[in-house]
Amino acid sequence: MPRMKTITEFARKVVEFPDMGIVMPDGCRLSARVWMPADAADDPVPAILEHLPYRKRDGTIFRDQLTHPYFAGHGYASIRVDMRGNGDSEGLMDDEYSEQELQDACDVIAWAAAQPWCSGSVGMMGISWGGFNCLQTAAKQPPALKAVISLCSTVDRYADDIHYKGGCLLIENFGWASTMLSYSSRPPDPLLAGDNRWRDLWLTRLENQPFLAPLWLRHQHRDAYWKRGSICEDYSAIQAAVLSIGGWHDGYRNTISHLAANIEAPVKGIVGPWIHKYPHYAAPKPAIGFLQEALRWWDRWLKGIDTGVEADPAYRAYVMDSVRPARWHPERPGRWVAEADWPSPNIKAEAIELIPEGARPAIVASPQSCGLAGGEYFPFTFGPELPGDQRPDDALSVCFDQPVLTEAIDIVGAPEVLVRVSSDRPQANIAIRLCDVHPDGASELISYGVLNLTHRNSHEFPQALVPGEAVNARVVLDQCAYRVPSGHRLRIAVSNAYWPMIWPSPEPVRLDLSAATLKLPLRPLAQGDEVTFPTPEAAVPWATETVRAANSERHVDRDEKTGIVTLSIVDDFGEVRDLEHGLANGSVARETWAIHPDNPLSASGKTHWTQTLSRNGWSVRTETSAEMRSDAQNFIISARIEAYEGEELVFERNFEEKIPRDLL
Fold first, then answer.
1. What is the pLDDT of residues 257-302, one digit of tens each?
2. Where is each Xaa-Pro dipeptidyl-peptidase C-terminal domain found (predicted)?
3. What is the rounded CA–CA span in Å between residue 403 and residue 400?
4. Which CATH class is domain 348-523?
5. Which of these, 132, 381, 379, 386, lies nearest to 275 by C-alpha position?
6. Quick one: CA dihedral 131, 132, 137, 138, positive or negative?
7. At the fourth CATH level, which superfamily is domain 5-167+222-339?
8. pLDDT tens-digit profile of 379-411?
9. Which region, left, alpha or beta, applies to residue 394 given φ > 0 means left and ψ of -120 to 50 means alpha?
10. Which of 8, 151, 515, 636 has a CA between 20 and 30 Å from the CA of residue 35?
């Protein structure tokens, strides 16, 4: 039996197993951290699985410490597994959401269900990567899996992830590949892997480490690569009960609506004002009692207790009030609304013609630097990552300002803009932002959408534009819930560049916009909270010592000699030491995104990550760097890993690849 410790009490005393080995059918050992009631062997309990590449020992430990002991104290075995090739697990990882990853999850579920301390019922949960793979695992229908809680996830790996959006190449495709190159470059902890073994596991991992950006770039259209794992291909495959949760300040805000509208199994959705975090400690506030809400879900579907979740509204959303634009909001005033059914008959689309019939076409020819006020795709750091005042981008866009509102409106749903447009180039992008304009002119982003116009009819089979020939297209903006007050006005801003959210077209483009219709989803004005949530609860926080405080910085600089505009980002995540096992870990991410306003081929992105681990004179460090640029025909990508033991360079590896552009 693996070593264990007694850690805390809720309803039941809890024991923790810091490194429980789970051996897969092919012999690969996965390392799991498991919490369960101390008496589970005599009184078996359901199990809850979270299956991630993010290192349970020093990566997600902050949130794990708040969450998993809490579930265990309320009668569950809570299992946090390092995916193969990451953290303290053996094996190698070759891609996100691979068949091996999903099979491992199914095998862990079967293993847990067969344990004497388990009742045989299993749930799976996760946020982001874990939110994705719990849905994809559910679609595999492992027999013991009865319920899922998926946060900040997607139903479509191509159209609504960090790779492509509206057929446009997201910068996050490169940025996230750079992040994973760094995350997965770290070794297992010698205290768990063994003094004579950790180094061999580390070097083998580094020798086989993929840099995933070239792989993802070789699939520029919605082909079989992206369809696999996209549960929107067959919603009926999900038979487990699904609770879907997200945040309006996160990049994954559409999934909740998609799941609530399409899954045939029991499903409920909750969207708050949060960034990319679990909502019991997320911001902007208000946070909610997520763990209590999760227990209601688990108790109903894993224990058969009538907790009333089936009578909950199908869709609960936080309608945010208008605020002054800022790069960070510690809280967002607003109110919770509830829809018994989703889609809701209470929400009506109002059509607003933006261009009068017979008017001359609007000419859209944005500088390539338009978009710098857009913020991060998925804000993460409780720092300056949110969209700022949109006026700098509005000035570089064609804007359609609506009359001043004489009464407030609640926008709830996904706005759409139907356009008729011609391009002077065979490939062109269009970006549309919906903004709340204050009486003094300040412009707050409500929602946005982008579309590669060659994808106007199909993401799988795009068609080049015929220069000068008008086409019809539908641009769907992200889901939102936002109150625009009386005295404000709506602005629809249209550009053909949105840097650095999307990679630019290979040539400067002029669009002639001859027709545009906004379809605005309006809900009767909410008078107050229509539902409430308990205040957050959690287990005892992670005990650490701060070695270096965290800090985030953003700077935009214009070189007046060259004209190059550069966004520089430094996210120092700090360094902390675990007060129990003594491991200190730290990381720093640096990014630069540069472009000339007149030249799309000047676009470049550079990243540099540093990861450190140390304990009692032992230390390792990895430095990963990457660069992306393009010419008219190709994307050019390079990367490098350096690994140090102490100050000695023990491993180095370079990546370089050129990938042809295909209507992108």
1. 999 999 999 999 999 999 999 999 999 999 999 999 999 999 999 9
2. 295-541
3. 10
4. mainly beta
5. 379
6. positive
7. Alpha/Beta hydrolase fold, catalytic domain (3.40.50.1820)
8. 989 999 999 999 999 999 999 999 999 999 999
9. alpha
10. 151
